[in-house]
Amino acid sequence: MIKSNFPLFILKIIIKTVFLVIIMISCAPEPMTVTITDPPEPMTVTITEPTEPMTVTITEPVTESFDIPPVPVYILGQGIVPAEKLADFLLLSNVLDKELALEFAQMYVEEAAIENINHDVAFAQMCLETGFLNFGGLVVPEQNNFGGLGATGPGHPGLWFPDARTGVRAQIQHLKAYATVEPLNQELVNPRYFLVRLGSSPRISGLAGTWAADPLYAGKINSILERLYEFSFGRVSISENTEPKITESEI
């Protein structure tokens, strides 16, 4: 029998220590990793009484990409904004009753479709001419004149129409006069229709200096169209309209 020179009690201590370490390692919980993807909004994660240090990862929300349509170039064509969105856009700058706003917007969709006029363009022009139906210029609400037809200056507030639909129709007919030589599909209600050289301005840009004296007139319509499309198809916060109203026109 070979005797070890290593003290027996030290060997026992080492064996016990190794045994305890093995037990602790086998029983210890693994570190946790918590991953939260696409949080809908800023959030706080609270973990009470963690047994082990842990990692919490909150990733940035994924931003969805929205394809905002380009502003139309031509007056003719089909609008793409539904009446509900047109009404909501109008209500950003006016305290109209929502049902009335929707009914009014639907008139533009219907009347424009009959004459193949882009209702987005007509509606944006109305917003510019009337200050989003707040008026305050030459034309008063009772005229039902939403395109500033014949409003050329003080003492000349423009045409009067018996109701809102007739006023919308008159504006659509005047836009068609500029856009094409094609005849109207409905009875003429706009007495200034034949004052326009038919088909002289098929593009929105051609309305500057013709429909209105303002050389920036078309750009202002386009600006409203951009905001309308951002509101309808994007996630851009739209502030209240600050576009100046047109007070003089040459139509």
**Helix-strand pattern:** HEEHHHHH
Please, how many helices?
Answer: 6
Number of strands: 2
> What class would the helix/strand composition place it in?
mainly alpha
Q: Given the C-alpha coordinates, what overall shape results?
A: elongated
Low-confidence stretches: 236-248
Task: Supply database-style keywords.
251 residues, mainly alpha, elongated
Can you give me a brief rundown of this structure?
The protein is built from six helices and two strands; from the N terminus they run αββααααα.
Word description of this protein:
- Residues 236-248 have low confidence and may be disordered.
- This protein has six helices and two strands.
- The radius of gyration is 35 Å and the shape is elongated.
- The chain has a two-stranded parallel ribbon with strand order 1-2.
- Helix 3 crosses helix 4 (119-130), helix 3 (98-114) runs parallel beside helix 5 (164-179) and helix 4 packs across helix 6 (217-233).
- The chain is mainly alpha-helical.
- Helices cover 36% and strands 3% of the residues.
What's the structural blueprint in terms of helices and strands?
Layout: H1 8-27, E1 33-36, E2 55-58, H2 83-91, H3 98-114, H4 119-130, H5 164-179, H6 217-233
Helix pairs in contact: 2-3, 3-4, 3-5, 4-6
